[in-house]
Each structure stands twice: as structure tokens, then as C-alpha cells.
Amino acid sequence: xxxxxxxxxxxxxxxxxxxxxxxxxxxxxxxxxxxxxxxxxxxxxxxxxxxxxxxxxxxxxxxxxxxxxxxxxxxxxxxxxxxxxxxxxxxxxxxxxxxxxxxxxxxxxxxxxxxxxxxxxxxxxxxxxxxxxxxxxxxxxxxxxxxxxxxxxxxxxxxxxxxxxxxxxxxxxxxxxxxxxxxxxxxxxxxxxxxxxxxxxxxxxxxxxxxxxxxxxxxxxxxxxxxxxxxxxxxxxxxxxxxxxxxxxxxxxxxxxxxxxxxxxxxxxxxxxxxxxxxxxxxxxxxxxxxxxxxxxxxxxxxxxxxxxxxxxxxxxxxxxxxxxxxxxxxxxxxxxxxxxxxxxxxx
Length: 348
Ligand SMILES: Nc1ncnc2c1ncn2[C@@H]1O[C@H](COP(=O)(O)OP(=O)(O)O)[C@@H](O)[C@H]1O
Ligand SMILES: [Mg+2]
What we know:
The chain is of the alpha+beta class. The protein folds into two domains: 4-232, 3-Layer(aba) Sandwich (Rossmann fold); 237-346, CATH 2.40.50.140. It contains ten helices and 18 strands. It has helices at residues 42-50, 92-102, 107-120, 136-148, 166-183, 194-200, 218-223, 228-233, 249-252, 343-346; strands at residues 4-13, 16-26, 31-35, 57-62, 65-66, 77-81, 154-158, 186-190, 203-208, 211-216, 240-243, 262-265, 271-273, 280-289, 294-300, 305-310, 321-325, 332-334. The strands form four sheets. A six-stranded mixed sheet has the order 6-7-8-3-9-10, with helices on both faces. A hairpin with a 2-residue loop joins β9 (203-208) and β10. The chain is elongated and about 75 Å long. The structure holds adenosine-5'-diphosphate (ADP) and magnesium ion. Adenosine-5'-diphosphate is lined by residues 13, 16, 18, 36, 38-44.
């Protein structure tokens, strides 16, 4: 059983508070993804769990064991970095076996585990090569292999695919998903890539400025964001958020809760209609054709801008005036603090 439990975690570097009280429960075998803007503390939190950094306050439990004072090597975790961090003068085989050698695992067992990991990651043919003789994707596989051979209780990944080109990222993403399925080991994964977070995670943790904004399944975060920050961080292109009194929006909206200061609607939930028909009206200022869909930039009557995903073949030209419709169920209402007003709270 390797659950991970963070209780009141704080981290200061000198006088700078980087992690400001994080509580988090990660279940055994779960794939948890940390997302958030650059500098919000994702890597720091991962390094605190690994033991590479020491916490300033709080408690970290890994598999029911309090590990605050436990050395990184004794925590049962393995970390994979964006930079791979391979030893250039060692072969793939020796890179993968290095940690085991340090831990005095006997040679036969070492080779058995390297063979096993190499088969899992399709590295068999590359075992005698040096890192410089490998592609980026192959190097990242070796870095993952080095983590696997230690049979860790928890894998920690810090943006492991960020240095790969787009095609390879998609491929490695599916490999990591398959790996998690096969090993069923607890994984904590940091990324700034929306698609990676949404596709890999059982549970996403949205961080901002050293605090947890929301924890939930990808679907929960997309459909029921707790606040404007999460609403606009999850989903791409980001959710339109308009003041609730933006004319002529409010008049036409059903059941707007009285405390609503702003209304959110995702670009994919706005439908283009004739100017007289919508709940919103505006002028198209830019059409970005991407193939499958077109992204319309619309200057709304009343002075606000919004984005619309348009999937019809014939698109409205720049300068044309259009109406926009949204289904009530796809609207998000937020109070003056930017917190979501729950559907149940405004249906009464
Ligand atoms: N060793 C350190 N000393 C001082 N400040 C640090 C150190 N490591 C990280 N920070 C600061 O902590 C904040 C969070 O960094 P980090 O965890 O790397 O963010 P993220 O991974 O989310 O981009 C940043 O402002 C960063 O400058
Ligand atoms: Mg980072």
C-alpha cells in the first residue's frame, strides 16, 4: 500500500515562501498530475516528496511512514527529470544499473532487472550504447528505465516530456499511460501541458502561488471548476469570463444567481447564430483556421472580447456581426471573490 499524504506542507527558501500550506491525499496506485503556472511550486513540491528538499513545516507520509527525516534513497521513490540526467560516460545498461550497484544489489539480480526494464521500454537493442548515441526519446526511456529498475513504491516525474518534439511527446505520453497500467504504481507527474494532464491523470492538482486551488478528476475540473482561476487554467483555448452585467448578456440568461459577478462560458460551448437570436452579439475581428475547427475572436457589444470555437465549413468573415448562443447548463457563475456558485445553489 503506497499512498502519499501531505499535511500542512510549507517550504521557504530564506524569506521567500514557496509552498504555503499544502494538504493532499494521494491513493495507492493513483496517477496524480500537478499543474499550474510556471513558478507556482510544482517542482518544489515534488522535490519535497522525494526528499531532495527539506520541508519547512508539515508532515509527509509515504505508505503510512512519516518520512520527514528519511533520506531520499530510503523513501522508496524514484524521480525522472526533464533533463534526463544520464551519465554520459556510462552505457545505457550501466546508467540503468547504477543506482542498484550503489545499493549493492548483486550483479545477477541487477542484470535481471535491467533486462526486465529494457524489455518493458523497448531498449533491448540499445543497452550497450552511450547516451550521446541516442535520440531524445530514447534517452528519456533510459531515464524512466533507471527509475523502474529500483522497483520504487512511488514514481515522481518532473515534466519528463518537455524536451521532446510534438510527435514523440504524444508517443511517450501513451507509453507512460501504458506503463502506469502495467505497473499499477503510484505516480506523481508534473506538467504544464494541458493534454498530458487531462489524458494521464486520475486526479489533477491545480497549484497557484504555493497553494492548492482545486483537486479533482479531469472531468470535474473541466465541468465544475471551483473558481475562475481553475476555470481559465483547465481547457484550451481558455474559458471566456464576462462581467455578469455585461449588456446584453444578463437580460437573456436564464436563472442567473443574484450573487453572480461574472459568467463563464467555454469557447466550444458558444454557437454562432444570426445577430438577433443569441444571448450575445458582436463583431468578428479575427478568424484563425486550424483545419478541424476555426477560432473566432469576437468583439462583443458592450466592450468585451470573447473566443468562439467554430466547426462549420463556411465561416463568418472578419467584420461580420454575429449572435452567440449558449446552453444554460454550460454556463459557470462566479461570485465577487471569483468562487464558483454551485448549480444546486442557484437552481432554487
Ligand atoms: N533552491 C531555491 N532557492 C530559492 N528559490 C527557489 C529555489 N527553488 C525554487 N525556488 C523558487 O520557488 C518558486 C517555485 O519554483 P518551482 O517549484 O521550480 O516552480 P514550478 O516547477 O511550478 O515552475 C519559484 O519562484 C522559484 O524561483
Ligand atoms: Mg518546475
